Amino acid sequence: MDVMTLRMPVRVRRDAGFGVGCRAVTQAVSIDATAAYDIRAADCISFLRSLPDSSVDVITTDPAYSGMNQHMRFGHGRIVGAYGKPGNARWFTEFSDDPATYRAFLGECRRVLRDGRHIYIMFDSFSLLSLGALVRDFFDVKCVIVWDKVHLGMGHYFRRRHEHIVFATKGRRKLSRRDLQDVWSVSRLRRAAYPTQKPVELFERMLEGSAEPGFMVCDPFCGSGSAAIAALRHGCDFVGADIAPGAVEMARARCAAWSATGSDPLEPAV
Ligand SMILES: C[S@@+](CC[C@H](N)C(=O)[O-])C[C@H]1O[C@@H](n2cnc3c(N)ncnc32)[C@H](O)[C@@H]1O
């Protein structure tokens, strides 16, 4: 993609008081913006607590649920190869997703999200059944999107080819398009740089009907930064966090490379 097309002047509101990587402008200005990003090493809940009320416009997130893995450890299933070994650096830290912690997480998501805005939360099938219903206590759940990964993954009984994305609103806001469907066929990444790295296209689809240039997009479990790249490509700003310092380093380097060249080093073809 031509870098010039990525740097179209956009009207950017910067009034939320974010930190590193953001320009301190307090009123609406029209600038030639390479959108700003702010990626912090932090636990998701402390990170969200550090953000002001009603300061983000879209949340797109892919939490590190522990439920599926714990369940499989108790059964006859196994976590794939070396990933299953405790303390394995090739895997990532899991989020302790008991209902009380998950409620605290959702409560903070609600507090930081502006009224009349959208949230997208990814779920594997195990967590969808154990935690998904809690989303209704905090947001108006509108639908469950199926991500068809196109290629088969590993499986416990049936081999997995899909995941879920719960789409919900805080207050009233329609999608900006009426032709969007609830099954998304987007090939999963093979040989990705980061464990469970998701395709940028998946996050771009979340923004398609929910974001406007200059919106602040937030991902409290940003991993390698796929949601950040989607936000920047969409002319949005991004604020996110990950508990793993290595992930934060990777996501920051990825965003810096994208901002400098218009090309994503972890998905060069996009
Ligand atoms: C499923 S991965 C996200 C992958 C990301 N969507 C990508 O495309 O690279 C979940 C991430 O959550 C992080 N994580 C685990 N526990 C966390 C916590 N308590 N707070 C913030 N991040 C956490 C992990 O380090 C991991 O990078």
Span of the ends, CA to CA: 8 Å
- Ligand kinds: S-adenosylmethionine
Q: Which structural class do the helices and strands define? A: alpha/beta
The percent range for strand residues is: 15-25%
CATH topology: Rossmann fold
Mean pLDDT: 82
Helical proportion, percent range:
25-40%
What's the number of structural domains? 1
What count of helical segments does DSSP give? 8
Report the principal-axis shape.
globular
Mind explaining what this structure looks like?
The longest helix is centred in the C-terminal third of the chain and has 17 residues, at 245-261. The protein is globular. With 270 residues, the chain is of the alpha/beta class. It has an eight-stranded mixed β-sheet with strand order 3-12-11-4-5-9-6-10. It has a two-stranded antiparallel ribbon with strand order 1-2. Strands 7-8 form a two-stranded antiparallel ribbon. It contains eight helices and twelve strands. The chain has helices at 3-6, 44-49, 67-74, 99-112, 125-131, 200-208, 226-233, 245-261; strands at 10-12, 29-31, 37-41, 56-61, 113-123, 140-148, 155-156, 158-159, 162-170, 183-185, 216-219, 237-242. Helix content is 27%, strand content 23%. It has one domain (3-261): 3-Layer(aba) Sandwich (Rossmann fold). Bound molecules: S-adenosylmethionine. S-adenosylmethionine (SAM) binds at residues 43-44, 62, 64, 92-95, 194, 196-198, 220-221, 223-224, 226, 241-244, 247.
